[in-house]
Design brief:
By secondary structure, this protein is an alpha+beta fold. 64% of the residues lie in helices and 9% in strands. A hairpin with a 4-residue loop joins β2 and β3. α3 runs antiparallel to α5 and α3 packs antiparallel against α9.
Length: 584
């Protein structure tokens, strides 16, 4: 992500810091001539499955801190969001994080540590009074200005009392500074901030964190173990401060200070027990003191084989290399290399989501293959059915076409016959017309002859004319009868055709009836065959039982004969024995 020259009305001056999801810039507001810090988050750098939660936290930070106006809380001036980026414009703090001092092994006197904690409590008292619980108090969110003042930043997971932003069961925060109830996902309130501030006070007094190790180890210690009292680690710590730390870090929320005001009062009273030398730095520690402590009761952090800053830098670089990866193995390797890194939880969620996405993709592919196979089988079945239907339709169409052609041929034959009859009638009419013309001409000739010889042959002509007229009338009657016969013949042929069609339909009906009767006869025959088969099986079973009975009877007869023979032999032996005894 390259540095933009402007962001809204703000002119970007330089980059202050960079993380896996965004960058913090120093910028200048030309309207009111004020230098500000702009915290950005690029939407494309966040996985879609986590973007809603990330941007919800970003908005909550702006809304939560925007409600607060306190000299020890970083002021929020503006929040903006577009398609590509969201940003918060906030007060620019010239200083360092408390975490940087701890990581560089800087030393604080006990009085300085108590003073810084009192400032943190003052800011928290104000935010709690206005209904805002920070829930992520840790050294990285405590800024120390050049004049020794503190500023609390990053209300990214803050809870506003008027809204239900986090339900029970959601674990958010930094493990070392989280109270037990936050680890267990229970609802938290202002007493969670009191616990976290108690942990920071413990670090100021001892130079060590109360619980160390991986996330699981820290969680187990926070829930089940009590930390060593600060005075057992640093003998310069009064026992009164032991009691303050113990109460602030109590396992149960109801055993802690119920308000920040109570915590401040107790800490202020206990700080009066600090020796004056702790303020001036004149006292030397006893010889038995732990080597982790320097003169004047200051705390010197232990050496490390690799500094936290270097490991954090490597952590961020590793995360930036894999942040856009879609391979679960990349996030698994990150978790193995940085089990308690800054992005461990995010990497774990990304690994789980990518693994689930891969499994889901595999399931979808298997379902798609199965669906395609079923679709191919279904298409094949449908094609076979369509082919069978097409064949049946083709057969039906062929039969219909053949029947239509036969009917057309029959109609054409009858049409030819009718045409022949009409031609015969036309020819007869033509012959008759020619004859009438001939007769008319002859009649004209005869009329001329008659008119010439009328006086002589009048009577003979009249007789001839009468005979001719009678002949003509006879011929006309004959022609009329022939025409009538022809019409009757045509009518008879039409009736014969109709009868032929009727007989054809009757024959088809008889054929259908015969087919049905044949089907019924076959069914009855099959039924009779089945009954005969059953009767044959019954006869065979009866014959088999009869044979078995005869065999049993024969066997019984043999046994009876054998018994009779045995009895006869025994009786004979007894009789012979009796005779022998009698004669002896």
């Amino acid at each position: 992500m390259e540095k933009p020259e402007k962001l809204g009305k703000y002119q970007i001056t330089r980059e202050l810091g960079r993380g896996a999801m965004g960058v913090v810039y120093e910028a200048f507001d030309p309207l009111i001539e004020r230098t500000v810090a702009i915290k950005t988050i690029l939407k494309s750098s966040v996985d879609k499955s986590e973007s809603e939660e990330a941007f919800s936290r970003f908005r909550r930070e702006a809304r939560a801190a925007g409600r607060l106006s306190h000299p020890k809380i970083v002021a929020i001036y503006e929040y903006g969001e577009d398609d590509d980026m969201a940003f918060i414009v906030m007060e620019l703090i010239r200083g360092k994080e408390l975490k940087d001092y701890f990581d560089r092994e800087d030393s604080f006197s006990l009085h300085d540590g108590v003073r810084i904690v009192m400032q943190i409590l003052d800011a928290l008292d104000y935010s709690h009074t206005h209904g805002v619980v920070h829930r992520d108090i840790k050294p990285a969110n405590i800024l120390i200005t050049r004049d020794g003042k503190i500023k609390i930043a990053d209300f990214g997971i803050a809870k506003i009392d008027s809204s239900l932003l986090t339900q029970a069961g959601a674990v958010m925060g930094t493990p070392t500074y989280m109270p037990p109830e936050q680890f267990m996902g229970a609802e938290v309130d202002q007493r969670a901030d009191i616990y976290s501030t108690g942990v920071i006070l413990y670090q100021f007094l001892t130079g060590l964190r109360p619980f160390t190790g991986g996330v699981i180890s820290v969680m187990h210690q926070v829930i089940n173990q009590e930390p060593a009292p600060p005075s057992h680690i640093n003998p310069n710590v009064p026992v009164e401060l032991d009691e303050v730390v113990k109460k602030a870090m109590a396992k149960k929320p109801e055993d802690r200070y119920q308000t920040v005001a109570e915590f401040m009062t107790a800490l202020k009273l206990a700080s009066h027990t600090l020796p004056a030398s702790q303020a001036t730095g004149n006292d030397k520690p006893k010889a038995a003191l732990n080597q982790a402590y320097g003169p004047e009761g200051t705390v010197r952090l232990p050496d490390r084989t690799i500094t936290t800053e270097v490991r954090r830098k490597h952590d961020i670089e590793s995360w930036q290399r894999i942040t856009n990866s879609r391979d679960p193995a990349d996030f698994q390797r990150y978790l193995e290399e940085y089990p308690d890194g800054e992005f461990t939880e995010l990497a774990r969620r990304r690994h789980a989501s990518l693994t689930e996405a891969a499994a889901q993709a595999l399931r979808q592919q298997e379902e798609r293959i199965r669906a395609e196979k079923e679709a191919r089988t279904r298409r094949k079945t449908e094609q076979q059915a369509a082919a069978e239907r097409a064949q049946a339709a083709a057969r039906t169409q062929a039969e219909t076409e053949a029947r239509r052609q036969q009917e057309a041929a029959e109609k054409e034959r009858w049409a030819r016959k009718i045409a022949e009859i009409k031609d015969d009638a036309e020819k007869a009419k033509a012959i008759e017309a020619a004859r009438r013309e001939q007769e008319a001409s002859e009649h004209a000739l005869r009329a001329q002859d008659l008119s010439a010889s009328l006086s002589k042959r009048n009577h003979q002509f009249v007789e001839v004319l009468s005979r001719r007229e009678a002949a003509v009338d006879a011929e006309r009657r004959m022609l009329k009868e022939q025409k009538k016969k022809l019409e009757e013949e045509v009518q008879r042929k039409q009736q014969a055709k109709q009868k032929l069609l009727s007989r054809k339909e009757a024959v088809e009906t008889q054929m259908n009836t015969a087919a049905e009767e044949k089907h019924q006869q076959e069914a009855e025959l099959a039924k009779r065959n089945k009954e005969l088969e059953e009767a044959r099986l019954r006869i065979e079973a009866s014959e088999r039982r009869r044979k078995e009975a005869e065999e049993r009877a024969a066997l019984a007869h043999k046994r009876t004969r054998r018994m009779i023979l045995t009895t006869a032999v025994v009786l004979a032996a007894l009789a012979l024995g009796g005779l022998i005894l009698f004669f002896s």
